[in-house]
Here is the input.
Amino acid sequence: MENLTWMYIGGISAVFIFLIVVFVSRYGNLRLGDDDDEPDVRC
Here is the structure.
């Protein structure tokens, strides 16, 4: 298991990079409901 530390760190880093790319791309503004739907919870 000690030799797989780099794989764990690389995997977590890849997931975070993927999430950042999706967040800043045009898919970051994608609505998951209909255009006239109101959110269930407001922040």
User: Anything to note?
Assistant: Residues 32 and 38 are 11 Å apart (CA to CA). The two ends are 42 Å apart (CA to CA). The mean pLDDT is 86.
